[in-house]
Amino acid sequence: MHGRGFTIPAKMATPDAGLEETTLIGGRYQVLRRLGVGGMADVFLARDLNLQREVAVKVLRRDFTEDAAFRVNFLQEARAAANLSHPNIVTIFDFGHEPGQYYIIMEYIEGTDLKTLLRRRGPMPTQEATELMTQLCDGVGYAHRAGLVHCDLKPQNILISPHGKVKITDFGISRALATIQPDERQETVWGSPQYFSPEQARGAAPSPASDVYSLGVVFYEMLTGRLPFEAASADLLAELHLHAPVTPASHHSPDLPDLLDRILLKVLSKEPAARYRTADQFGRVLENFLSQAPPEAGWVAAPAHDLPTALQEAAPEDRVDWLAAALGLLALIAVGGLIPLWLWVWLLYR
Questions:
Q1: How many other CB atoms sit within 10 Å of the CB of residue 124?
Q2: Where are the alpha helices (DSSP H) in 10-100?
Q3: Catalytic: 152?
Q4: Range with the lowest mean pLDDT among 79-93, 278-292, 315-329?
Q5: 241-271, pLDDT tens digit by residue?
Q6: How far apart are CA 201 and CA 313, in angstroms?
Q7: For residue 131, with 0-12 CB atoms within 10 Å meaning exposed, 13-18 middle and 19 or more buried, which class applies?
């Protein structure tokens, strides 16, 4: 992967000292305290003085405000997410800028991000992880139906409320499907090397299946407490995503059901066509899995030679079209009923 550039979020970002408590942003948002520090932006809890409610304020770091590319990505995040209205996607309320400062006003979610939760708790029970992943698939699937690929799904961009509600955030490098050319190539790869798909690693066009791969990496981490691939550099991580086989999750979590193990291997396929095409499809497979399994950890799936029904969506051509079948039967009856009439006419006039 020589010669290709990767953008890697800072592991230990230094807080931007430009904002203090009680700072007023946009003339109406009073900063209360810092919530988090990111590679590109810092997030603060603030109070909307006009509507008297708490909001989260994402402020682009001052060292990026002079960079046109970062400003464009920041504005894109606001516009992309503002057009999405779904229970599993953080709601965007406002966007604005002042001299030396760009900010996004969004819904405040009590709780923590998934990465912090995993560091604190370790691997999740199978049922809990699967239920959270179905919520993630709902939100990402909605974005796919709206014509948007997230392109940077990772635990740091997934918020979990104290009641187990999932909220997806950070659409800063998302792509509109209508703008993606199948043969496009990028010299600079945006995203997080631990979680991006093989096609993103080689600079190819992303697709909904790229998000599905990233969801698979997140799911693998939720179930095992570790990533499927780890390396010291972005280039080595990209090579692993592109060429290295995935160690089955059951190798790290022996009690993992065989069926879920195979679902994960399918989602983490190197070729997009071998995965589920959208997050909606992946979510339905997980819902089928939950409905067929006992509500306890350590589920064991029945052996099968082929992919079980829970692993795959029935293709349109595999489904029985009962309306077409009924119409065909009626046509057969109608034609069959005319045969005696044709015979009588032939005998009469031969």
A1: 22
A2: 68-82
A3: yes
A4: 315-329
A5: 999 999 999 999 999 999 999 999 999 999 9
A6: 27
A7: middle
> 179, 198 in Cβ contact below 8 A?
no
- Decide which of 49, 75, 107 is a domain's last residue: 107
CATH of the domain at 292: 1.10.510.10
**Number of domains composing the chain:** 2
Which residues does 318 contact at the CB level (< 8 Å), separation at least 6?
none
What amino acid occupies position 329?
Answer: L
Strand, helix or coil at 117?
helix
Q: Identity (one letter) of the amino acid at 154? A: K
69: exposed, middle or buried (C-beta count within 10 Å: 0-12, 13-18, 19+)? Answer: exposed
Domain that holds residue 231: 112-298
User: Among the options 48, 138, 152, 211, which is catalytic?
Assistant: 152
User: Is 153 in the same domain as 284?
Assistant: yes
> Strand 188-189 and strand 5-6: pairing?
parallel
Mean pLDDT of the chain: 79
In Å, what is the CA distance from 349 to each residue of 29, 81, 112, 187, 338?
94, 76, 88, 81, 17
